[in-house]
Design a protein that fits this description.
The chain has 243 residues and is mainly alpha-helical. The protein is built from nine helices and no strands. The chain has one domain. α5 runs antiparallel to α6.
């Protein structure tokens, strides 16, 4: 395992922390503002699934793999939610111990696993230009991902520095997945498309089950709807620009 390969994986995963730091520029916001930000993050997550994860899974496999992966991701998040003593997000500034936060972090962590595997396997690919290209692309995508995680935690009353810490932890999961992909890349090539579809299903579950209902719970439906669409468009543009 070369130091250059490790450095590529490390930089790619740490971009999550770089994106998360942007949350420090956000000051206290009204409840309406928090609903708008929640809807915006939901739009980003749906766009990442529909415009990034799902097409990538299809490109690497087929429709059957995609459907199976999405359904398994949805089922696993459903089971996890049923096992967590559930308390719906109350409509207040403080809900730092809500199980919804755990579900969100689980979904985002799952989303990072196939990305890490993709970076690791691309580095050991016979096509020498593939590794740097994939690492760069995933790293750029991790910047808005990190901001997304920190932003959601901030809207739920988490201290900005703790929000950055949690974002960094999800990035470390991608780092470990990248190392696994680097060490056992050939063995994991067949798993990557399932993992991508699995991540898409888990993210879509969290969006529809948690984020959208919360952002529409206090009479801010119209503003939240526009924020959702803007979030969706933002991620589409970022994905297209940095391809």
């Amino acid at each position: 395992m070369s130091s250059l390969a490790l450095t590529s994986i490390l930089i790619s995963s740490l971009c999550t922390s770089i994106g998360a730091m942007a949350v420090l520029m956000i000051k206290d916001v009204s409840h309406r503002g928090k609903d708008i930000l929640l809807a915006y993050t939901a739009g980003i997550m749906v766009s990442a699934s529909a415009y990034g994860l799902i097409p990538s899974a299809l490109k690497l496999s087929n429709l059957t793999v995609l459907v199976v992966g999405i359904l398994i991701g949805t089922l696993v998040l459903t089971i996890i939610e049923s096992l967590i003593p559930h308390t719906d997000l109350n409509h207040s500034a403080k809900s730092s111990h809500s199980p919804n936060l755990l579900l969100f972090l689980i979904a985002m962590s799952i989303h990072n696993i196939p990305e890490g595997l993709s970076v690791g396997t691309s580095i050991i690919s016979p096509a020498q230009e593939l590794g740097p290209m994939v690492s760069f692309a995933i790293g750029l995508q991790n910047i808005p991902d990190g901001f997304l995680i920190a932003l959601f935690l901030f809207t739920q009353g988490i201290n900005p520095f703790k929000a950055i810490l949690f974002s960094t932890i999800t990035g470390l999961i991608e780092l470990f997945a990248g190392i696994v992909g680097l060490l056992f890349g050939q063995s994991f090539e067949g798993i990557v498309p399932y993992a991508l579809a699995f991540a898409a299903g888990s993210m879509l579950f969290v969006v529809y089950k948690e984020l959208i209902p919360e952002s529409h719970g206090d009479g801010n439906e119209r503003a939240a709807t526009f924020a959702f669409i803007l979030g969706f468009i933002t991620m589409v543009c970022l994905t297209d620009w940095f391809r």
